[in-house]
Amino acid sequence: MQQYSEIILIGGGLIGLSLAVELKLRGATVTVLSRDVQEAAGLVGAGMLAPQAEQLPPGPMLELCLRSRALYNDWTRKLEEITGLDTGYWPCGILSPVYERPPCTRLEATQDTPSYWLESEAILQQQPGLGADVVGGWWFPQDGQVDNRRGLIKILQRAAQELGVKIVEGVTVEKLVNSPNKIITEIQTNQGNFGADHYILTAGAWSGQLLSIPVYPRKGQMLSVRVPNPIQTLPLKQVLFGSDIYIVPRRDGLIVIGATSEKVGFNSGLTPNGIEALLSGAIRLYPGLKEFEIQEFWWGFRPETPDSMPILGQSSWTNLTLATGHYRNGILLAPVTAQLISNWVLNQQDDPLLNYFRGDRFQVL
Ligand code: GLY
């Protein structure tokens, strides 16, 4: 027998859960089919909210990321009110130290995107203890972070449950069944068939296994260390974003270090090469952390697309919407994705920005 819901989210990671909460708050009946939330990219990253530190060029992707960053405060507050839990949202700013002085020390800035070049003395005042070969760096005061791993994703799960979203874990989607008139009629899974009026694909790196869309896994390995006596001193009070390495200090003394970027398909696990690169990059940038106690290692798969931009909005099937391929910016883009895709699915409200993210830009749908 088919299990029915108004809207089904195919994928229970950060994007699927953010959408489920938003759609439910707007009155829809929602079911989330999740294969294994432990593998979600949203649980893997460091939670940087870094449109400026990532140095995205001006254009629709930067605009989308800045819009989402601007939503973060209210979005996390709303989730905290629903659940009574702390997301760890911290608009702490991001410092981007460099080892070679760039030819130009001015970046295009607007009122919403201030950025400052700091010479070597100034950067050491901003962040004592940086590596000896840092020659200066950028300060992006409006970038920040959220505690995705211990906070956000668990809070989204809790919020979804409290609001009455049905989350079915352990579901492997086997097939999207469609009719000749381009409608998905049901989905076959290892737990039976599910049907809905509308489906949203939020399966991250696994999306390409369900539909012919160019979304590929890009592996990242990560680790964390802990500051001794964080109550006495917190040596890092902002994110450090170096070249190929970032160091993200949480307010309780945990420090997350990431991440490798490997084209190895779904090859799972940690490698000595990967961890060595993270440790040497992090110690070069902030030598003091070589004495900190290691807490944990983990890895996961970012959903990459050919142009590194997500795939958002309508598909070739009338009742299937796409919200996937967020690559390096899924945690940042969760609130704006939830907002724009809910507007589209519930009210057919097509934000002009969505046009840049349509799946048919790749000509393979
Ligand atoms: N957002 C940073 C990363 O994907 O490593």
UniProtKB/TrEMBL annotation:
Pathway: Cofactor biosynthesis; thiamine diphosphate biosynthesis. Residues 7-344 form the FAD dependent oxidoreductase domain. The keyword Oxidoreductase applies. InterPro entries: FAD-dep_OxRdtase, FAD/NAD-bd_sf, Gly_oxidase_ThiO. Keywords: Oxidoreductase, Thiamine biosynthesis. Its EC number is 1.4.3.19. The keyword Coiled coil does not apply. GO terms for molecular function: flavin adenine dinucleotide binding; glycine oxidase activity. GO terms for cellular component: cytoplasm. It holds the Pfam family DAO. PANTHER family: GLYCINE OXIDASE, SARCOSINE DEHYDROGENASE-RELATED. This is glycine oxidase. It comes from Planktothrix paucivesiculata PCC 9631.
